[in-house]
Amino acid sequence: MASKRTARDALNSSIKARNPVPGARHLTGEPQRTGRSSDVEIAGAHNMLLKLKRTPGIYLVGFMGAGKSTIGNLLADSLGWFFSDLDQDIEAEQGATIAQIFDTRGEAEFRRIEHEALNRRVREIERGKPMVVALGGGAFAQEANQELLSERGVPIWLDCSLERVRERLGGLCDRPLARDPEKFEQLYEARRAAYAKADYRIEISSDDPAEIVAAILKLPIF
Question: Angle CA(62)–CA(134)–CA(58) in degrees, nearest 5?
Protein backbone atom coordinates (compact mmCIF):
# COMPACT_ATOMS: atom_id res chain seq x y z
CA MET A 1 0.00 0.00 0.00
CA ALA A 2 2.85 2.37 0.91
CA SER A 3 4.68 1.76 -2.37
CA LYS A 4 1.50 2.45 -4.38
CA ARG A 5 0.96 5.72 -2.53
CA THR A 6 4.57 6.69 -3.15
CA ALA A 7 4.14 6.04 -6.88
CA ARG A 8 1.07 8.30 -7.00
CA ASP A 9 2.87 11.01 -5.05
CA ALA A 10 5.78 10.80 -7.49
CA LEU A 11 3.40 11.19 -10.43
CA ASN A 12 1.71 14.21 -8.86
CA SER A 13 5.08 15.77 -8.08
CA SER A 14 6.19 15.27 -11.67
CA ILE A 15 2.98 16.81 -13.01
CA LYS A 16 3.30 19.80 -10.69
CA ALA A 17 6.92 20.32 -11.70
CA ARG A 18 6.01 20.31 -15.40
CA ASN A 19 2.67 22.14 -15.10
CA PRO A 20 2.28 24.05 -11.83
CA VAL A 21 -1.35 24.84 -10.99
CA PRO A 22 -1.76 27.13 -7.96
CA GLY A 23 -4.39 25.87 -5.53
CA ALA A 24 -5.23 22.78 -7.58
CA ARG A 25 -6.86 19.71 -6.07
CA HIS A 26 -4.72 16.64 -6.77
CA LEU A 27 -6.57 14.33 -9.72
CA THR A 28 -4.73 11.00 -10.87
CA GLY A 29 -5.91 2.39 -13.55
CA GLU A 30 -5.83 -3.48 -16.86
CA PRO A 31 -4.64 -2.73 -20.39
CA GLN A 32 -6.86 -3.74 -23.32
CA ARG A 33 -3.89 -5.01 -25.24
CA THR A 34 -2.09 -8.16 -24.15
CA GLY A 35 1.70 -8.15 -23.98
CA ARG A 36 3.60 -11.15 -25.34
CA SER A 37 6.35 -10.81 -22.75
CA SER A 38 7.05 -9.04 -19.50
CA ASP A 39 9.27 -6.61 -21.42
CA VAL A 40 6.36 -5.61 -23.64
CA GLU A 41 4.09 -5.16 -20.61
CA ILE A 42 6.68 -3.05 -18.79
CA ALA A 43 7.24 -0.91 -21.88
CA GLY A 44 3.49 -0.44 -22.29
CA ALA A 45 3.05 0.62 -18.67
CA HIS A 46 6.01 2.99 -18.98
CA ASN A 47 4.47 4.61 -22.06
CA MET A 48 1.15 5.01 -20.25
CA LEU A 49 2.89 6.66 -17.30
CA LEU A 50 4.69 9.08 -19.62
CA LYS A 51 1.43 9.91 -21.39
CA LEU A 52 -0.27 10.62 -18.09
CA LYS A 53 2.59 12.85 -16.96
CA ARG A 54 2.45 14.78 -20.23
CA THR A 55 -1.32 15.22 -20.21
CA PRO A 56 -2.68 14.35 -16.76
CA GLY A 57 -6.20 13.33 -17.73
CA ILE A 58 -8.13 10.17 -16.85
CA TYR A 59 -11.31 9.70 -18.87
CA LEU A 60 -13.95 7.28 -17.58
CA VAL A 61 -16.00 5.80 -20.40
CA GLY A 62 -18.74 3.22 -20.53
CA PHE A 63 -22.48 2.73 -20.82
CA MET A 64 -25.04 4.77 -18.92
CA GLY A 65 -25.51 3.47 -15.38
CA ALA A 66 -21.93 2.19 -15.11
CA GLY A 67 -21.24 4.64 -12.29
CA LYS A 68 -18.77 6.88 -14.10
CA SER A 69 -19.71 10.05 -12.23
CA THR A 70 -19.78 8.49 -8.76
CA ILE A 71 -16.55 6.57 -9.31
CA GLY A 72 -14.89 9.50 -11.03
CA ASN A 73 -15.63 11.87 -8.20
CA LEU A 74 -14.28 9.41 -5.64
CA LEU A 75 -11.20 8.71 -7.76
CA ALA A 76 -10.47 12.42 -8.08
CA ASP A 77 -10.79 12.85 -4.33
CA SER A 78 -8.45 9.91 -3.74
CA LEU A 79 -5.85 11.41 -6.06
CA GLY A 80 -6.45 15.04 -5.21
CA TRP A 81 -7.21 15.97 -8.81
CA PHE A 82 -10.04 18.01 -10.29
CA PHE A 83 -13.22 16.24 -11.41
CA SER A 84 -15.59 16.96 -14.28
CA ASP A 85 -18.88 15.32 -15.24
CA LEU A 86 -19.14 16.15 -18.95
CA ASP A 87 -22.94 15.94 -19.05
CA GLN A 88 -23.17 18.37 -16.14
CA ASP A 89 -20.77 20.69 -17.96
CA ILE A 90 -23.08 20.64 -20.98
CA GLU A 91 -26.25 21.19 -18.97
CA ALA A 92 -24.72 24.13 -17.10
CA GLU A 93 -23.49 25.74 -20.32
CA GLN A 94 -26.67 25.15 -22.33
CA GLY A 95 -29.17 25.82 -19.55
CA ALA A 96 -31.04 22.65 -20.47
CA THR A 97 -31.00 18.98 -19.54
CA ILE A 98 -29.43 16.39 -21.83
CA ALA A 99 -32.92 15.03 -22.55
CA GLN A 100 -34.17 18.49 -23.53
CA ILE A 101 -31.23 19.03 -25.87
CA PHE A 102 -31.88 15.66 -27.54
CA ASP A 103 -35.61 16.35 -27.86
CA THR A 104 -35.39 19.91 -29.16
CA ARG A 105 -32.17 19.95 -31.17
CA GLY A 106 -31.53 16.30 -32.06
CA GLU A 107 -28.68 13.92 -31.40
CA ALA A 108 -26.35 15.32 -34.09
CA GLU A 109 -26.41 18.77 -32.50
CA PHE A 110 -25.94 17.27 -29.06
CA ARG A 111 -22.85 15.37 -30.24
CA ARG A 112 -21.38 18.60 -31.61
CA ILE A 113 -21.95 20.35 -28.29
CA GLU A 114 -20.55 17.35 -26.43
CA HIS A 115 -17.36 17.30 -28.52
CA GLU A 116 -16.77 20.99 -27.92
CA ALA A 117 -17.28 20.55 -24.16
CA LEU A 118 -14.84 17.64 -24.10
CA ASN A 119 -12.32 19.59 -26.14
CA ARG A 120 -12.42 22.42 -23.60
CA ARG A 121 -11.70 20.04 -20.74
CA VAL A 122 -8.83 18.47 -22.69
CA ARG A 123 -7.32 21.91 -23.28
CA GLU A 124 -7.42 22.57 -19.53
CA ILE A 125 -5.63 19.27 -18.93
CA GLU A 126 -3.01 20.10 -21.56
CA ARG A 127 -2.36 23.38 -19.77
CA GLY A 128 -1.46 21.40 -16.65
CA LYS A 129 -4.75 20.99 -14.79
CA PRO A 130 -4.92 17.31 -13.73
CA MET A 131 -8.44 16.00 -14.04
CA VAL A 132 -10.70 12.94 -13.95
CA VAL A 133 -13.46 13.34 -16.55
CA ALA A 134 -16.63 11.22 -16.59
CA LEU A 135 -17.93 11.02 -20.18
CA GLY A 136 -21.53 10.46 -21.20
CA GLY A 137 -22.41 6.98 -22.43
CA GLY A 138 -22.19 7.86 -26.12
CA ALA A 139 -19.23 10.21 -26.05
CA PHE A 140 -16.46 7.64 -26.54
CA ALA A 141 -18.49 5.94 -29.27
CA GLN A 142 -17.78 8.99 -31.45
CA GLU A 143 -14.56 8.62 -33.47
CA ALA A 144 -13.75 12.32 -33.15
CA ASN A 145 -13.71 11.99 -29.37
CA GLN A 146 -11.58 8.83 -29.50
CA GLU A 147 -9.03 10.69 -31.62
CA LEU A 148 -9.12 13.68 -29.29
CA LEU A 149 -8.31 11.53 -26.26
CA SER A 150 -5.88 9.06 -27.87
CA GLU A 151 -2.69 10.86 -26.84
CA ARG A 152 -4.09 13.24 -24.26
CA GLY A 153 -4.41 11.12 -21.15
CA VAL A 154 -5.72 7.66 -20.33
CA PRO A 155 -9.27 6.46 -21.16
CA ILE A 156 -10.59 3.73 -18.82
CA TRP A 157 -13.65 1.63 -19.67
CA LEU A 158 -15.96 0.86 -16.76
CA ASP A 159 -17.54 -2.34 -18.06
CA CYS A 160 -20.90 -2.89 -16.38
CA SER A 161 -23.18 -5.80 -17.31
CA LEU A 162 -26.48 -5.06 -19.02
CA GLU A 163 -28.36 -6.70 -16.16
CA ARG A 164 -26.66 -4.48 -13.59
CA VAL A 165 -27.25 -1.38 -15.74
CA ARG A 166 -30.96 -2.15 -15.96
CA GLU A 167 -31.19 -2.67 -12.21
CA ARG A 168 -29.50 0.66 -11.58
CA LEU A 169 -31.61 2.64 -14.02
CA GLY A 170 -34.80 1.03 -12.74
CA GLY A 171 -36.83 1.86 -15.84
CA LEU A 172 -36.13 5.59 -15.64
CA CYS A 173 -36.95 7.37 -18.90
CA ASP A 174 -35.05 10.64 -18.31
CA ARG A 175 -32.20 9.32 -20.45
CA PRO A 176 -33.10 9.86 -24.11
CA LEU A 177 -31.60 6.64 -25.44
CA ALA A 178 -33.01 4.41 -22.66
CA ARG A 179 -36.69 4.82 -23.46
CA ASP A 180 -37.07 1.82 -25.78
CA PRO A 181 -35.98 -1.44 -24.03
CA GLU A 182 -35.18 -3.27 -27.29
CA LYS A 183 -33.16 -0.40 -28.75
CA PHE A 184 -31.51 0.05 -25.35
CA GLU A 185 -30.06 -3.47 -25.47
CA GLN A 186 -28.99 -3.03 -29.10
CA LEU A 187 -27.24 0.19 -28.20
CA TYR A 188 -25.48 -1.47 -25.26
CA GLU A 189 -24.08 -4.19 -27.52
CA ALA A 190 -23.20 -1.81 -30.35
CA ARG A 191 -21.13 0.49 -28.16
CA ARG A 192 -18.97 -2.21 -26.58
CA ALA A 193 -16.59 -2.27 -29.55
CA ALA A 194 -15.97 1.46 -29.11
CA TYR A 195 -15.46 1.20 -25.36
CA ALA A 196 -12.94 -1.62 -25.96
CA LYS A 197 -10.66 0.95 -27.62
CA ALA A 198 -9.99 2.50 -24.21
CA ASP A 199 -6.52 1.89 -22.81
CA TYR A 200 -7.82 -0.05 -19.81
CA ARG A 201 -10.93 -2.00 -18.81
CA ILE A 202 -12.31 -2.32 -15.30
CA GLU A 203 -15.14 -4.80 -14.73
CA ILE A 204 -17.92 -3.41 -12.55
CA SER A 205 -18.43 -6.44 -10.32
CA SER A 206 -19.58 -4.53 -7.26
CA ASP A 207 -21.98 -1.75 -6.34
CA ASP A 208 -19.38 -0.32 -3.96
CA PRO A 209 -17.62 2.53 -5.83
CA ALA A 210 -14.68 2.37 -3.40
CA GLU A 211 -13.87 -1.14 -4.68
CA ILE A 212 -13.81 0.09 -8.26
CA VAL A 213 -11.59 3.02 -7.36
CA ALA A 214 -9.21 0.61 -5.61
CA ALA A 215 -9.06 -1.50 -8.78
CA ILE A 216 -8.26 1.57 -10.88
CA LEU A 217 -5.49 2.59 -8.51
CA LYS A 218 -3.86 -0.83 -9.03
CA LEU A 219 -3.45 -0.21 -12.76
CA PRO A 220 0.18 0.28 -13.82
CA ILE A 221 -0.09 3.93 -14.75
CA PHE A 222 0.80 5.56 -11.44
Answer: 95
Q: pLDDT tens digits, residue range 130-162?
A: 999 999 999 999 999 999 999 899 999 999 999
The Cα 188–Cα 45 span in angstroms is 29
1, HSE (Cβ side, Cα atoms, 13 Å):
1
Enter the pTM of the model: 0.81
Q: Are the C-beta atoms of residues 155 and 199 closer than 8 Å to each other?
A: yes
Full DSSP string of 31-72: BSS--SSHHHHHHHHHHHHHHHHHS-EEEEE-STTS-HHHHH
Domains and CATH numbers, the chain: 36-217 (3.40.50.300)
Strand ranges in the chain using DSSP code E only, listed in sequence order: 57-61, 82-85, 131-134, 154-159, 200-203
Q: Which of left, alpha, beta for 155 (phi over 0: left; psi -120 to 50: alpha)?
A: beta
100-125, pLDDT tens digit by residue? Answer: 999 999 999 999 999 999 999 999 99
For 209-221, the pLDDT digits (tens) are 999 999 999 999 9
Q: What is the rounded CA–CA span in Å between residue 90 and residue 173?
A: 19
